[in-house]
Amino acid sequence: GQNIDQPTEMTATEGAIVQINCTYQTSGFNGLFWYQQHAGEAPTFLSYNVLDGLEEKGRFSSFLSRSKGYSYLLLKELQMKDSASYLCAVTDSNYQLIWGAGTKLIIKP
Amino acid sequence: DAMVIQNPRYQVTQFGKPVTLSCSQTLNHNVMYWYQQKSSQAPKLLFHYYDKDFNNEADTPDNFQSRRPNTSFCFLDIRSPGLGDAAMYLCATSRDFGQQYEQYFGPGTRLTVT
After folding, report:
1. CB B47 within 8 A of CB B33
2. What percent of chain A has pLDDT over 70?
3. Is A102 on the interface with B (CB under 8 A)?
4. Smallest CA–CA separation between A99 and chain B, in Å?
5. Among candidates B42, B92, B105 on the partner chain, residue whose Cβ is nearest the Cβ of A101
6. Residue range B38-63: average pLDDT?
7. Which whole number is the average pLDDT over A88-108?
8. Under 8 Å between Cβ of B78 and B64
9. Which residues of A touch B97 (CB under 8 A)?
């Protein structure tokens, strides 16, 4: 079966750095997305990785290792507004998007 | 601003009473998706359309139907809602169907079944 694993919940302090991990087992791989979802709202796109390595976009960076079936989302200089769920999603060989259940990130002052 | 719009934002229906949720997009995207998302769970894909080609997920119950009368609009019909169908329903679009095309989501419709 296809599976995406992420921690259920993480807590971090305002101003700090947090790394949210995602491991996947899918039938084929055609890219990995990270989305942010605030409570009661729709997911919004954060990043896309298809090649190994680090993609940096402002305070957010996303890393991919295809050989390990692993990605992480790195959030720097955390702000209270970063409190949200972060969903990892992988495009499989049929271009279907397989979603993780998300990691709820709680930011404390 | 180009966007994905869902109406209504909140819908209450009675057990067994048909309900229709609507989605429209001004992005002119080829692909439209309907997802069901329950609390603290991953979005579950119900259907997607590539233009007018309809694709039903294998495990989507027959109780759920969809229509896409034109490029801009897509509807989700729940013929006989059960208590287990209470969820957030998300409509999304993507420019095309392929590896690098991100999905753009509407704000969702939260369905309550009484």
Report:
1. yes
2. 100
3. yes
4. 6
5. B42
6. 90
7. 92
8. yes
9. 95
pLDDT in tens, B52-103: 888 888 889 999 999 999 999 999 999 999 999 999 999 999 998 876 889 9
* Alpha-carbon distances, residue A52 vs A46, A48, B12, B28 (angstroms): 17, 11, 46, 32
The verdict on A87 touching B (C-beta cutoff 8 Å) is yes
Sign of CA dihedral B46, B49, B52, B55: negative
**Contact in structure between B92 and B45 (CB atoms under 8 Å):** no
CB-based contacts of A86, cutoff 8 Å, min separation 6: A6, A20, A34, A35, A36, A37, A46, A73, A102, A103, A105
User: Searching chain A, which residue's CA lies closest to the CA of residue B102?
Assistant: A45
What average pLDDT does range A75-97 have in this prediction?
94
Residues in B closer than 8 angstroms to A8, CB to CB, are 40
Mean pLDDT of chain B: 93
- Averaged pLDDT of chain A: 95
Distance CA A39, CA A86 (A): 11
Nearest-CB residue to B43 (from A31, A95, A99): A99
Task: Report phi then psi at B21, rounded to 5.
Answer: -110, 145
- Does B94 touch chain A if contact means CB atoms closer than 8 Å? no
Q: Do B40 and A104 touch (CB under 8 A)?
A: yes
pLDDT in tens, A18-70: 999 999 999 899 999 999 999 988 899 999 999 999 999 999 999 999 999 99
